[in-house]
Amino acid sequence: MKVLIVDDETDVRDSIRLLVDWEDYRITDVLEASDGSSAMTLIESEQPEIIFTDVKMPNVDGMTLLQWIEDNAPDSKRIVISGYDDYAYIRKTMMHGGLDYLLKPIKRSELLDALRRAVDTWLKDEESRRLNIRKDVEINKTMPMYWDKILSNAVSQPGFYPTVANELHASFGWSAVRECRVAMMITDPLPRVVLDKFGGNLDLLYFLMGNICNEVIGPPENGYAFKHADPNYGLILLLTGDLTAADGKLRAMNDALYKVLRARFHCACSSTTAFPHRLHDGFEQMLQAARGVSFLKNTDRIHYEGDTPPPVPAQRIALADFANPLTAAVHRGEPSRIGSAVAKWIQTVGELEAVTWEQLKYWRYEYELLRGRLLKDTDRTADTPAHASSPGLFPISPDSRLSLEDWRREWTDDLCEIAKALKEASLREYDVIHSIKQYIDANYRENLSLQDIAGQFFLSREYVSRRFKQVYNENLSDYLEQVRIEQAKLLLANGQYKVSSVAEMVGYQDGRYFSKIFGKLTGMTPREWRKEAGQEA
User: Which domain holds residue 93?
Assistant: First the structure.
């Protein structure tokens, strides 16, 4: 903290300097000026927090200096030290932000009290300023999200706008607006060049795109760009002002976005509609226009309802119709078969007259289901991103066209990776099931249960049971009984053990149950087996 002492008398400046132990008041620098003019220069360069000033000085006097400080350094705390006990001076001191008016000769106690009040007041004000700055920062961060939510409801929900009309009119100046257009920059799927850069932070992408579009729109009374709360709808443009220039502004936005993102976007737009009464109708018109946008062919990027009719049912295709050959190819693990199966799908898509926004969304849903089923028996999960794609999945070029060749290559690569994962999982599963079999062979004498065996390998009992049956074509419990009975045969043939002892030695605590299982698997009792073996006890 810095202090400036302004007085034309050197003795007065020295007295003030010597009367105070400045470090006790967090003062690090004590500056001096002999008149108001030099004080102004120091205040501009050093920005002292506390200023002591005389009234009568050459060049610029103390009252003029106080008035200047009020305009140029209002946060500083001012204390006047004067030899004149004049009410007019005291009044002007208070009027121009002075904190205290001390009379010469200076009393140390009065000086220290005034300084303490000045320091305490400045620290309190500084803390308040910091809190206000933090509050302003938080408001600046949250206001765009707040408007996103409010405006999303305003366009999506009929009758919502009147509930927030006063707030929107005050913030955006829309009280006199009577017409509007509602448009949407289609950001799903994203051009691959944008996805590669912003795929991990889509909020930052929408923030950037919103700022760029709002710069083109101009003052808020001309409209506003916002991210719709529903991620299906991307960036919404509410255009007011001169609507005859709407198309030009939409093209200007795309040009501006291209300079920054190196990609252009399809834009679905409503016709001019009454504001705010038909705002929701405009939103629905916009969605209808979006449903007709084709990503397959190079068309104008501004689309209105009816420009491109949606595909007729005969032109609609479903990935589910191609799921069986795709699944079979993946399970066979042959890249050439996978490539052929994907190529047939891509060929069928390429024969369509249009590939729309809604079709791409549905195909993405179908592909995620397919991947989930394929990945079920691997250590990867269904939400593991597809090769070089998710959340975009479809390769969109910088000019907003769907690249069928890139699509074919990426799905082929992704399904080949899944095939590889399935093969690795199969090998690992065989290894663990083989280890379970070896564990049974070595521990059949113990009181083993399916739960105990699964716990030894940190697997579920259901998984162990299912996979053991798949690998060895018999139930695990049947295999355990078979191992025990085979060992029992050897012990019975030995002739030196009682049947009850043999039962315990192979893991049966109940001799009668052992005899029952033995008879079930061999067709004879243990004694009959021993006799058959020529070792009558």
Answer: 2-128
